[in-house]
Specification:
Elements: E1 3-7, E2 10-14, E3 32-43, E4 46-53, E5 57-60, E6 66-69, E7 72-76, E8 78-79, E9 85-86, H1 92-99, E10 112-117, E11 125-128
Antiparallel strand pairs: 1-2, 3-4, 3-10, 4-7, 5-6, 8-9, 10-11
């Protein structure tokens, strides 16, 4: 452990894997919370939309750092030739939006959702209508 590599013209130290901090998320399951933010972003695999709830709670870590517990969901998007974020009605994004009876992700702001655990990411929260 303690390897050094060159990244974008500078030396970077690589330390290796560490144990994740475990926090019990079960008290948040099935809680009702409002959607606070809708962000349109681009990542390694293309455009996407991140939908984020209001904080369920703010906790303080051992290092005295404040951390907000929120539920979030990422939905895939595409971009048209003008650079607008788009999706089809039959895609997972379209079906997800239809469960809330909305036409665009922005219309989710202020909607009340139910918090559930993310299936594939232990310790993360998402939501359903």
């Amino acid at each position: 452990m303690g390897k050094s590599v060159r990244l974008e013209g500078r030396q970077v130290k690589i330390g290796g894997a560490v144990d994740a901090v475990e926090y019990d998320m079960t008290p948040y399951y099935n809680k009702k919370v409002k959607i606070e933010k809708v962000e349109y972003l681009e990542g390694q695999f293309g455009p996407f939309c991140r939908i984020v709830s209001e904080p369920l709670e703010t906790i303080t870590t051992k290092e005295n750092k404040k951390v907000e517990i929120r539920a979030s969901k990422i939905i895939n998007m595409k971009k048209d030739t003008e650079g607008k974020f788009i999706w089809t009605k039959t895609s997972n994004t379209g079906v997800f939006l239809s469960t809330f009876n909305v036409d665009t992700p922005d219309e989710l702001k202020g909607r009340v959702v139910t918090v559930i655990p993310q299936e594939k990411k232990r310790g993360f929260l998402t939501f359903v209508a």
